[in-house]
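=== RUN LOG ===
request id: a7f3
mode: sequence -> structure
chains: 1
length: 262
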Amino acid sequence: MSEDSWLRTAIGGATADAITVRDRDLATELMGRVTFTELAFLLVAGRQPAPEDTRLLDAVLVSLADHGLTPTVLAARLTYTGAPESLQGAVAAGLLGAGSVFLGVVEDTATLLGDIAGPAGDDDAALASAAGEAVRALLAGGRRVPGLGHPVHKLEDPRTPRIYSIAEECGRLGVHLRLLRHVAAAHARETGRTLPINGAGVAGAALADLGFAPAIVRGFALLARTAGLVGHLAEERASPLGMRLYAEVDRRAGAPRRAADP
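=== RESULT ===
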């Protein structure tokens, strides 16, 4: 083995007259033959997805693309306001906020479900019992249960039943999606409060059922949200709100406080 034999990648490469991606010719085998969703699956998993895999992954990506004027979107728009010459900077600013409150819940949920599902196996009763133990441990430690609750969708996140329906139709309703329902039920029993399974949580469970490791699933959330951010930045160019938002914040922050009434 040569000294520099480690310096290679199985993802892709290029020569003077060809580009390969996962050992497939980009121009003749992939372009015009696979969708972007199929390509994303191929790049990460290293294998061509079955049609059922593609349909579920595509639904997950669509579900995560946009959710209105969220903090991540505002970060992108305000960055673009300050640096309109740097579209990439604005997109990056919007992606950097993908953490424990927005988007990062996809990974947090997949990680929790993976930790529970490993020892519990596939038996439904064992999954329910393990979910209960995990929820009790999280609550006892003062930690939240990822994948539950939403600041807007208080009763039901409309994305959640649709993902479950598509997964069932595709034969991809696996252990992680089933387990997430047990986690939600256990949380309701322990707290007396029924929180909906949110879109990020169900996305994490679906991605785990597609075989993706928890440590990589946030990447799919970022991939999806990039499309949403580009859309918002296109709108920001046509109908800017960033400067007006800044001016409004500046006005309110600089307004003198009224003395408290005696």
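=== NOTES ===
The domain at 50-239 is CATH 1.10.230.10 (Cytochrome p450-Terp; domain 2).
The CA atoms of residues 157 and 198 lie 6 Å apart.
=== END ===
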